[in-house]
Design goal:
single chain, Rhopdopsin 7-helix transmembrane proteins, Arc Repressor Mutant, subunit A, 2 domains, 17 helices, 0% strand
């Protein structure tokens, strides 16, 4: 069993470090997010390296304990990674150093009775771990951190998706689904780790050992899944400005538009969409239309998202689908493929086109064309 664990751990470490190395050297304008993800992979790799660390040092050691406390850095780094891929204006700031606090607190607490004592005292500390307030503090702090950070990540993703829908018309929401899935898988993994820690300090420590073995066996598959998804979703959101506000966050007076202004802006908007066809631009943003029709972004956002009851994303797609329907009805264009049509009307992915088309018409583009 030990040999198998060493082999699996070695494979996991190789994949993690290889992917981290790739993320660090690949040429891209998204260097910060790539470095954060690489750092996350490296910390995760160190976290699962316990079988190798135990072979290097006999018995408990400062290196082994420090490796354990590095787990406090994993989730904060992942949170910053999600921030960086959601918002185009993300920058590392001194205020983010606060995320180091749990890691520092846990290590400072371990100095008097672990880091600064001899090997015999370290061994006694580990044997009597159930009575050691430092380890109890560390474990409770870790569990609280897991709950707080994953709640924050899911709320962040929810807000980012709403901001994207209210201000953008391009891209593919599958990237959001991947980021949500990634967070969900990671959250599930940490829940398993919490159960492992609970059993470790119970009367059934052997259950903790079996859970640890299961996690090590899963690690290579999860890392490969990270790699596959990351390479297939390089764009993610990336074009959301963190300074943007949701319409629901606007003061009540800003969401109330006078009827005469509302009608004037609505006519102006519809005329521009019909005459100029800006929806043909796959990267159209609400700011682009605001500039062209001379209506403030906030007022236009309230008009579309609040008054018309649509996200900007759906509003623009309505015009794209109507244009696509006209092409599909045109018998002279019967040879034009669905793929050519979706690019022609402003979509940039087949899945988003099919989803929007079925949402508006109840049919897929292919079935709609056959029914004509």
């Amino acid at each position: 069993m030990d040999n198998l664990l060493n082999i699996v751990t070695g494979i996991s470490l190789f994949i993690s470090f290889f992917l981290a190395f790739f993320m660090l050297i690949v040429k891209t304008k998204h260097k910060i997010s790539n470095r954060l993800f690489a750092f996350f992979l490296i910390i995760s790799a160190v976290d699962i390296s316990e079988p190798f660390i135990s072979q290097i040092s006999e018995g408990p050691s400062n290196l082994g304990m420090f490796r354990t406390t590095l787990a406090f850095l994993q989730i904060p780094i992942f949170y910053l990674y999600v921030l960086s891929v959601c918002y185009s204006d993300f920058k590392l700031k001194p205020k983010y150093l606060i995320h180091l606090l749990p890691f520092l607190v846990s290590n400072i607490a371990l100095i008097p009775r672990f880091y600064s004592v001899d090997v015999a005292s370290k061994l006694d500390f580990i044997i009597n771990r159930q009575n050691m307030i430092e380890l109890q503090l560390t474990h409770w702090l870790f569990h609280i951190q897991v709950v707080v950070y994953f709640t924050a990540v899911f709320l962040l993703l929810r807000r980012a998706k709403k901001l994207y829908l209210e201000n953008n018309s391009g891209g593919n929401l599958n990237s959001y689904q991947w980021l949500f899935q990634l967070t969900g898988v990671l959250a599930a993994l940490y829940v398993i780790v919490i159960f492992k820690n609970i059993f470790k300090f119970s009367d059934y420590p052997y259950i903790s050992d079996w859970i640890k073995i299961g996690i090590l066996m899963l690690q290579p598959f999860i890392t490969c899944w990270y790699l596959y998804k990351a390479l297939n979703n390089p764009g993610l959101f990336r074009n959301i400005d963190s300074k943007l506000k949701l319409v629901s966050d606007f003061p009540l007076e800003e969401k109330t538009i006078k009827p005469e202004i509302l009608n004037e802006d609505l006519l102006k908007l519809k005329k521009y969409m019909t005459d100029e066809k800006p929806f043909l631009n796959p990267d159209l943003k609400i700011q682009d239309i605001s500039k062209e029709i001379n209506v403030p972004v906030r007022e236009l956002s309230v008009l579309i998202n609040h008054q018309l009851g649509q996200h900007f994303y759906d509003f623009v797609n309505t015009y794209r689908i109507e244009n696509a329907m006209q092409i599909l009805k045109d018998s002279s264009k019967s040879k034009v493929t669905i793929l050519e049509i979706l690019y022609e009307v402003g979509f940039n992915s087949k899945s988003s086109f099919n989803t929007a088309f079925k949402k508006q018409t109840g049919n897929t583009p292919t079935s709609y064309r056959k029914a004509l």
